[in-house]
Each structure stands twice: as C-alpha cells, then as structure tokens.
Queue: 2 jobs
Job 1
Amino acid sequence: LTAYEIILKKRDGGELSRAEIAFMVEGFLENAVADYQMSAFLMAVFFVGMSDAETDDLTSVMLETGSVLDLSAVPGSKVDKHSTGGVGDKLSLVVAPVAAAAGVRVPMISGRGLGHTGGTLDKLESIPGLRTDLSRHEFERVVADVGMAIVGQSPDVAPADRSMYALRDVTATIECVPLIVSSILSKKLAAGLDGLVLDVKVGRGAFMRDVESGRALAERLLATAHRLGLPADAVLTDMESPLGRAVGNALEVSEAVDVLSGEGPSDVRETSLTLASRMLVLAGLARDGREASARANEALDGGQALGRFARFVEAQGGDPSFIDRRGLLPAASVVREVRSDEAGFVTRVDAMEIGLASTELGAGRREVGDPVDPAVGIEIVVPVGGEVHEGGVLALVRANDVGRAEAAVGRAGRAFEVGPEQPAPRPRVLEVIEGPGTRARTSTGPRRS
Amino acid sequence: LTAYEIILKKRDGGELSRAEIAFMVEGFLENAVADYQMSAFLMAVFFVGMSDAETDDLTSVMLETGSVLDLSAVPGSKVDKHSTGGVGDKLSLVVAPVAAAAGVRVPMISGRGLGHTGGTLDKLESIPGLRTDLSRHEFERVVADVGMAIVGQSPDVAPADRSMYALRDVTATIECVPLIVSSILSKKLAAGLDGLVLDVKVGRGAFMRDVESGRALAERLLATAHRLGLPADAVLTDMESPLGRAVGNALEVSEAVDVLSGEGPSDVRETSLTLASRMLVLAGLARDGREASARANEALDGGQALGRFARFVEAQGGDPSFIDRRGLLPAASVVREVRSDEAGFVTRVDAMEIGLASTELGAGRREVGDPVDPAVGIEIVVPVGGEVHEGGVLALVRANDVGRAEAAVGRAGRAFEVGPEQPAPRPRVLEVIEGPGTRARTSTGPRRS
C-alpha cells in the first residue's frame, strides 16, 4: 500500500477501502504521507467524490485519530447544535439557553470566525471575563450544573481534521460534500452526544449556494451520522441575507440578549425556536415537533432561557450584569452611516458582502490566528422588505478606525439593492429534514415541505 | 494574485492567463507556492485540462525558468528525436547514426529508465568507457565533428519541469496531456533545434493505451511545438509488445548494433528508418518522404550508419571494439528459460509485464537514483506470431541473482499468451502525423492513413 496507489485509485474513480483511507489519514498525521500527496488526494476527492461507505470510513478514521469525550457522568440527554457557518449567526447564544431551560443538556463545542463568517467563541469572548477554554472537568461540571456550556475544540479531538482542514483551506478543497461531512461529524462523534441538530445554511453567505446542494449536504450528513450511531436532524436555513440585524461580536451578543428578552428580530427568534425544538425531540423531551415547539416557546417567553443564559455566563467566568447594562459590552469609537441613493424597498442585502465588510473592520479573521476586535461590526437598519427614502440610512458601520470605517461603508453599501416593489417575504427556515434514525421515532414533527 | 485563487479558478473550469501560470510555476521554483498547492493545482489540471493557449503558456513559462542551448555555431540542420517511453526501445541508437550519416546534425538529449521503461543513457553507459555527461562545449564539438551526440539533460534546462515532474511522479498526475506536452516541449525548445520528430508510443507498455489517445497527444504536441516555433512531426508506434527481441541495457545495445549491421529484428529496422526519414525531411535534406526513405536506407545498408555509430562511441570516450567483439559488453552470470505450457502461436507478449520483469532484474529503476545493472534483461526467443511447441523456450532471462532470475521467469511467463491460431501481422509504425508547419512544406510524404 502506498499513497501513490491510493491517489491513483481515487483519481481513476475507484472506491477506497477503510484500510486505504486509514493509510492516507493516519499516514498524513504521522508525516508518512506527504502534505503534497494529501492535497492531490483531496483534489481528486473533490472531483470524483466519495461513496457513502467511504464517507463513513473517512469520518470514523478521522474520529479515531483523537480522543472521545465521555459525558456519561452528566445526567440527561446531551444534544448539540452545529451550524455550517453564516453571517450574523448568533443562534447558538439563543438556542442553547432555550434548549437547556427546557431540560436538554447542551455540551456545545464551537468555533472561531474565518473569512466572511463569524464564530460563536469570538462572540462570547466579547462578554467581559467570559472564558471558552474550560478544562474537560470544568466543561462537564458546567453542563451538569447549568445545563449548557460553550467551549472551543480540544486539540486532542480529531487531530486529523484540524490538519486536513488547514490543508484544504489553502488548496481550494473546502467545498466538497464528503470532506465537509467527515470534518463536521468526526468532531461531533467525539463529543459524546445523544443527538445533534445540524443547521445547514444556504445562499450567498454560505458554502452551499442553493437549496438543492444544501439539501444534498444535509442528507449526506444525516445518513453518515445515523450509520455511525449519532441520531441527528437537519434544518435548512436561508443565508442570502445576514441573520437578524447585527453583524459583529458584541453587537451580536446584544441582539441575542434582545431575543432572549422577548424582543429582537423575528427571524432570529423563529429560527432559534425551530432548532431548539428539534433538540428537544432528539433529547426525548417531547413526543413530537408540536409539543417541542410549545415547550421551547414557553422557555423563551417565560424568561427561563434568559435566566439560564445569565447562569451560563457566570459559570464560565463572565459578568452577566451587561444583560441589563449593555454599555458594559465593548463599544466602537467611530460610527458611519450607509445611505440609500434612491427611495424604495430593500430587495437584497448580500450576506457575503456584509460578512466581508465586517471582517475588514476587524470583527473577523482573514487567516487563522488573526486577532478580532469585539466592538466593531455592522448594524442593518433597513432589512430586506423594509422601505427607505432617498438618502435614508440603510445600515450603521461601527469601527475603531476612520479609514476602515469608510472602506466598510463602501462595501456594505454595495450589499444593498433597493427597488420600486416590496419583495415577497422570504422564510428563514426553509426545510426541516429528519434523519433516518429519527424519522421512525417521531410521528408528527415537521417534515420536508 | 494568490496560489489559492489560481487553484480555485482552474478547479472551477476557468482559463488561466499567462501571468497566473507564471505565478504558479515560478512561485513553485522559488518556494513561494507550496508543493502541496502545486500538487492540488496539478490534480485540478488533470481533471479540468488546459486550453491550447494555457498549454502554450505553461510550456514557454517552464522553458523560461532555465537556459536555452545555442547551437548556431554548429553548421547544418539540427534535428532530434524524442520518444514518450517504451520497452525494448533502442531506436535512438539506430536512428541517430542513420540520420547523422545522411547529413542531419543530431544533438540528442536523452533520459534514464524509470518504472517499466528503459532509458537511452542507461543503455549507452553499458558500453565500456562511454560518458553521457559531456560539457556543453564537448557536446557541441561532438555534434559538429561526428554529426551526433547523446547526452543527459543539463540541470539548468527547464528546472521547473524537473521539480514539477518529481511532484507529478508521486501524486498520480503524470498521465495528463497538457502536462506531458509542456514537460516534453519545454526541454526540447531549450535545445536549440531546427526540428523534432516525436515517437509517440501506444499500447500496454506506453502511457497512452490506445491509438486515439496517442493521436490526441501527438496532435497537441505538434500544435504547441508549431505555435512556439519548433517544426515537428510525429510517428505513432505500437507498444503492445516490446520493440525487437532484447530488453535490458547491454542486450539492447547489442541488438542496435545488429540492426546497424543489416541484421536484427525487422520492427527495429523499419521503425528506425521511418523516424530517420522524418528527420531528413525536417532537416530539409530530402524533398519528400520517399526521397528521405531512400537516403536513410542507403545510409543503413551502405554501412555508413554503423561507421558513424563507432565514431560517436569513440568521441564520447567509449571503446568501439565491442562492435566486433560483443563479449566485451557486460554479461550476466545466470540464464533461465521461460517455457511454454502448450503448443501454438504466440498471440501476445505484454510489454508492461516484460518491462516490469526487466526492472525487477535490475535493468531499470523503481525510483529515481536507483542503480541499474547493465548486464541483465530478457531476450524474447519467440515473438508475437512465432510458433512454439509444448515446453519450448519463449524467452531467456539473464540475471546476476538466482532468486531474481526465478521471479522474472514467472513474471515474464505471464507476459506471453499462446493460442491455436497465428495472429495477423501487426504493424509497428501505426501512423505518421505531420505537424501544422511541415504539412505545408512537404507534398508527398506519408500522411495519416
């Protein structure tokens, strides 16, 4: 067995055995397979694809390069939510406390922002004092005590994924379904979960640009998760425009608190409730989607979710007093307005452009390891469907540098399209797709429309 | 401009500009583009291909990474022959002296064996004393004095090709037409030639397995050579079975001398005369293929070619007395017979299996830098079309190690197929394809059949 033969076999359309996949992945980690061989292999996979069996094998081989978290000492059903990455996506900060308040244990492992997308860890770290680098013991304790914790990936989980992802990131092999599936699931299978809800983003601000490819990714994720023993459901959500109004770390935390307080944008509220409901079903805490939805609404509207969020912030070392005094969050020194050249209705806010504008302000990273500025970002004043007069303010740019602010005003301005007719309302939740294992268990939950 | 963007563009089917191609190739040589990015790029090219313009640009960018030989001080038309690599291919040792004896200047730059294929330099070095590492000055002098010289590639010629070929060799990206075209022509364009004859091998022992793909490669080679100013013709030759009877370095030298002496296998003779004739036409020494063929035959049958070969051996430091006393060539100590299980006609001798058996004996290399044994190899006793009785000898294995000899007997035996009916004779020369520049110049030469 040589790396050359395995690359050749994949290049020529062959189906690899588990031993061949393990040879590549483990060899790459041990430097027996060169990085230039792995990158050629990944590009061949990009073009040829992988069968279900190959995808399962790749996922479990990557999983087995690292350690697996044992959360059996934590009572209750442990369910996490994972998003494929978007712009303005503060859903974790709402979903986790809603689900936890309704009885789910949420051991959430999150990431950092890269490129145009934000990351939950960066958002949380804008809260004064809050730490996301809990030890394994602290993580278990917070999940057991509060019902939720949010931390970064431990370096001993699926190390092959970290190395392979870094290589894919510089060789244009990110956008490949079997590689995305194995990357996501190798980490989630290592987290000792009883269930997983996948938020698959679709549109201009997402990897998957259309519903068909998003659905294909969701189906592959669910099928592999099922075969490897992890019950999972997926929700396809729209990422043509940014989620909610706020893009940027502290701005998004503040918006999440608004939603937990019964205020804030309705798309963030509705999407969060849909995701939390699926978590309740997977946790066995609701018989069907309707019952789950009622319980999630109750947890949010009754204030228990907000209370749970405050306990979570405190348990991870943060000061929850910002919840009532938002001025305690980092604030930017420069504000600039994005104005409309014409009167009409906003027909489009391009999530990719807004995400890139926010990254250029310093809210995100161009490369792994770049610092982020917690205070900066963009606030959308008139979202899609809203009306604006000539010269009216479409968005606010919050920056700590005048030059960057003005560049962001230009880029954010290009994200907006204004037309004479009000566009039809666009749903944020596009589809709920139940996994092969959960279809049998639930009878009346929402199904693919 | 970044390597990432260029890989992405090629991956997604875009046509690269010359600047983008230069960024990759020059960046790779200067370590600004990582080897793992170059290998991902090469695999994307394998799947997506390259346009004519991209192939031309890649070829000339690779050419310009190195120096160009100036042979203008050598009088006469300088024409080389290049083969895409085969088994038992000693044609250079016949073609060069025939062409030189007929008036062509042949500044031949050759390679070494790798995998199942042999290399002209390895064959020549089995001649006692002969050197292939001439200085540039010595090379020019021998070409001017003798009319031919055969040397290895200078390291300052197309260094990008050497680095890229080494990477392709370990990442399964060899078999890709635009990459083959640019690799061959970047080196040949650096050799200061007035013309080039390409021997494109087709069949089990060649990169190109069928006539269609061989013709496609030949057409691409000729078109790019023409656009970059090098007049070229191509000959498609059959490589289903080894060329001639001898496979192995000294064995092939001896067979070439047989052919130069008016003896030896007719396929080696006829193919050599076809290639030498094309060289005469390209050199402007014959008005058409018929005249060229007559002059090549005359040079061979009149003994001038053999005399030229002897002068060439001496000029490159070798002792030509082996021509009359073959016992002066290295000889193997162990001889084993490959016998037939049944009576009948040989219907097939698999060139790939014979080539691999010869490499395993030590006549070739598994990896660049391996030593070769000049004495060992395989002699085919009954070629395709010949009759054998039950238990009759099909081939002789010549080795310097009993274990290797016996392994080679097994592998070489599997190369032979024997059947009840005599197969139809198979031509070795399949097609002569004139390049776009030479079609206009010649009127009655052989054309594609």
Job 2
Amino acid sequence: MIHSAKTMRCLSADNVAALVAQHGLAACIAGIADNIAADFKRWQEFEKSSRLATHSPLGVIELMPIADQQYYAFKYVNGHPKNEQLGLPTIMAFGALCEMDTGAPLLVCDLTLITALRTAATSALVAKWVARPNSKSMALIGNGAQSEFQAVGFHHLLEVTEFHLFDVDYKATDKLLRNLAKLGLKGRRFTSVAEAVQGVDIITTITADKTNATILLPDDIKPGMHINGVGGDCPGKTELHADILDMGPVFVEYAPQSRIEGEVQQKPQDFPVIELWELLQGRHPGRTNPDNVTIFDSVGFALEDFSALRYVHDLANRLGVAGSPALIPSLPDPKNLFSFMPPAL
Amino acid sequence: MIHSAKTMRCLSADNVAALVAQHGLAACIAGIADNIAADFKRWQEFEKSSRLATHSPLGVIELMPIADQQYYAFKYVNGHPKNEQLGLPTIMAFGALCEMDTGAPLLVCDLTLITALRTAATSALVAKWVARPNSKSMALIGNGAQSEFQAVGFHHLLEVTEFHLFDVDYKATDKLLRNLAKLGLKGRRFTSVAEAVQGVDIITTITADKTNATILLPDDIKPGMHINGVGGDCPGKTELHADILDMGPVFVEYAPQSRIEGEVQQKPQDFPVIELWELLQGRHPGRTNPDNVTIFDSVGFALEDFSALRYVHDLANRLGVAGSPALIPSLPDPKNLFSFMPPAL
C-alpha cells in the first residue's frame, strides 16, 4: 500500500488541540490507550532502541524513534525544569509518522499536548491491568501540566472519582482544582504527601524536579496500593524511595531504557522488572492478591508515541483536518527538484 | 540568551523555496558553505554521533542529531531509490534547530531542498580547498535531483564553467541540460562515463542506486583530478572502484560514520582518512602537488545540516518570513497545559 506524499499533514499545536476538543478529551485518551494496548501486544514486531538523549546543564533533549514494517515514528521532546521561570513549558514535543516503504512523512504534528494524553493513557491502561479492582481514589502528587490528563484518564478508564492533591507549589494545586471543577471531577487539597496518600487505592507521582527526590517513603505505602510513578524519567531524576521498589512487582515499558532513566536506576542491573508486553501478552499474571503492592515505573517509551501518532493520523483523516502547508515538496518530476525553485530565480 | 518560544518558525517546502529564490540560489549555497567552514573549524565544540538509521527492504530512514552549547539540530531524511517510480522524491527531509538552554524549537522546516544546497555547498567547499587551482571543468555522473545544485555550487564557488554530463537515464540529462540553460551554464552530454570524465579537472559522482556499483574505474582517473564522490552514502551503496581510494588522500566528514556508509566501507577499518576539520584547521596540508589525485568521500554529516539550519534561520529572521502556525503551543501559564484545550471541550 503506497500513499501519495500529497496526503501529508502538518498539524500545529492549535490544530491538534482543536482535533482533541472536537472528538473529546476522554475519548481521545481511551482511543490512544486502545492503540497502546494493541501495539504492546505485538511488541515483537517493532524495531526498538533507547532514546537518543543530549544533556545540558539546564535539561535534556531527546529523539525517540521506533518502527514496524509499515510505519516509522519519532518524537522530539525536551525536559527543562527551569523553563517555567521563563514562561515556557517544561516539556515541548513534536514528531512524525512516516511510511517505511517510501520514507514519506504522513503526519508531522505538535506532540506537547499528545505527550500528556499518551502518558495518561499508558498510566490508566497499566492501572486497569494491575491496580486493585474497583479502585476509586487516587493521590496526585505533583499538580503541574500533566495532572489534569492523568485525572481524566483514571476517571474514564477506571472510574476513579476521588482525587487527593498535593504540590509544593500551592498555585499549581489551585489551577488543578479549577480545571477539575470544569471537568466535573472532585479534587481535595492536602498539605503533605503523607496526608494525601492516606487511604487511597492509587498513588500517581508526577513531579518535574531534575533531582533524586524521595517524594514517596516506604511508610506511605499500604497493602493493596498501586503506584504510578511518572516523574522519575531521566538519569538522576527519581521520585520513589528505593525500598518501595522491593514492595511488589515493578512494571516497566522497555527495560534497557528504564534501567537508565526510571526509578529502577537506583537498583542493580539485574533487579527484576516486568515489561508491559509480558503483562499484556499474558506472560505475567499481574496482581494476584488484593493486598499486593504494584508499581509502574513509567518513563515514556517511543512505542506510546507511535500509537498516539497513529491515533492522531486516523482522527485527522476521519475528521478531515487539513493543517498547514506541506513540509515536504510535492514534485511533478521527482528527479527535477530544481523545478521546485520559483521561476523568479 | 533566552528566546521566547513565540519566535518559533515552521517553514513549509514552499516557504523555504521562496526564501532561497528571494535571496538567490548561488548566494544561499555560498552562505551555507561559509557556515559549514566556520562550524568545521570549531569541530571540537560539537557533540557528535553517527546517524541513527532504520533500514527496510526498500530504503533507509535516518535521524541525524548534533549539538553545540547553544543549539541542537536534527534532520529526518530518507533514501528510497524506487520512489521515483511512484512519483516521489528519492530523498525527502525536514528538521529543526532548537535552543539547548530551553529545548524550544526555533525553526522547523523542510530540508529536501536545503539538503541539496548543503551537499553542493560542502562539495564545492572541499573542492575549493583540495582541487587543482583554476579547475574549469567538471564531469557530473548522475543527473538526478541534486545535479543542478552541484553545478551552481561549483560554478559560483570555484568558477567551473564546463560541465560534462552522463546518466544512464537519457531523460535525466535532458532535464539537467534544460535547467543549466536556464541558469546560463554550459552542459554537454556524453554517452559513457569514460568519455564524460576525459580531460576534466573534477569528477562528481552523484547516482542513487542502492548497490555496490563501480561507476568510476581506476583507468578513468588521471593525475591532478579531484573526485567528489557523493552518491555512495549508505551501507552497501558505493560508486568508486576500491582501488581509486589508494590513488590519493581521502577526505571524509566524520570517520566513524564514513567507515560504515562511505566509499571507505570497502576498505579495512584502519584505512587512512582525513577528516574535514583537520583540513580546515590546517592540520593537513591538502593538495601538495598539481598532479595529486584528491578524493572527497562525501556521505553527508549532521553538522552540515546544523550549519544550513542556522543559515535558513538567520535568513528567515532577516527577510521576515513568518511561516505556518506554531507547531508547539505557547502557554500563558506553562503549568496549565490543560488551558490550551479549546473551551468547547
């Protein structure tokens, strides 16, 4: 199946936001979660590599490529915690979905918003598989840019209804409370992590500090809890006390990358982890007892962006969103690239 | 120096072509060559890596990242020789120039046209350093998409005035002859490689076949010639008979990459090569005698795209080209990504 380069779409941040709003945020997170589940189930079909990271004193810039036989996808993404002080997002991202047979880009688009959606989709998907059935409450530790999307994901995919909020930045929690109210969701502010996590079914940690922090201590964890650790995602950046990782099975996306970037960077190279595909292909039983503690050490893997880009591409086709002028020239005679120069030359 | 994300530009293929036409093709190639020379002279300041290639039965897709302390750049580029049959360019490319301190993309643009310009700029720059002084004639073996740009580069940077053309595809030479006439340049068709190269100062091979070909034989090479080997640029894709590489010093962009992708893939790992920075920093004398044969084994390195992206960025700023809507959202409160969703939600 060969597409013409003329079907290429370039979607701006505004285009993507309009697309998500038109289809519905919850529906998009659910749809992306379905794609992610389907893609992890065929894990063996992908050519995978750890992301290519370029570190600087203030942050990191990464390229995340992945391919199956039909599609190639990559994401550009940064992580600069001090950006906030400059009025810039901590995380900005864009990427492309391309055709393996021709190399033609089919979709180039903003992934800043989509990164938040696919992270929430992955978090909720994993929790649906391993959190205690009928989980109703979740602590959200870190109330920054991604927190609303986590709440929407867990509400719509798991029917979580009660959100316990904590952030060292009081205004971040203000903002999250306002946005949850707009969504018809119930949030409650707590003044410490210990208080916020008390009695909840699920704890999501999603903070941005580029340090080895211990946001969660072993004493915070009670039998049956599921921990969704999202913010520990690059070397030297962790959120969980290392002993928490001994309290139950630790699920990761792609072990070679997680051992460098995830919470498990605190553990020896042979520390046992379960890759998501093992869970989704039924090779690991997941939770076997309501009292199990389960841990998802999420760092974000290229396959999730692949799944999300396919989703955005399908949605843009279905809803007929045209986007901006093509990034790649369309040539009547491909050997005559020179003809693409305006005659003014 | 911190830029605002609001200065981000997204330039379509049409935008880039208009920009090049407005400033002049020859001036752009010369300007890019100046940037490339300046950047190779400060080679040690760059964080370099070989490109990340994903191969498939029909072609290759590559990501080429590079960074100094101020900027990060990458290019997406494919190589699919059979695309022509589908009416698609063999090579399509786009990329970005980003700020190291914030990760903010400053420029995202088509690089299909710019790849041809920067390849011609690099070819002409190297020839200016090592080809015989007062070279006036060049054989162009391969008259495809990039051939006009090579001709313009060598005409304007070296004052080459006579172009000997050969291609197995008769129509490709027709097209090149037409385009050269538009540019006021003199081309002459030959019916074999051996005839085309006879008596010239410089031979440029720039063919697209994804095979180990021997476009040039040792007998074709006469004392004093400079060989600009451009088309041998991925594993299993070469153009020169291996013995030609023993006829004079072989210049490469970045040895670890060239040993995998270039003509020197035909030679042992310890085959002597000279990296361009050694030439441009004066650590290698280049040509020492009018009878030397010199060989540039060009594969295309990320630094050339970095130099070209900086050039396009400066030019777009100077000429005030706005481009398409921003690929990355601009947020009043960076922690409130959710606010970027339209209120319709």
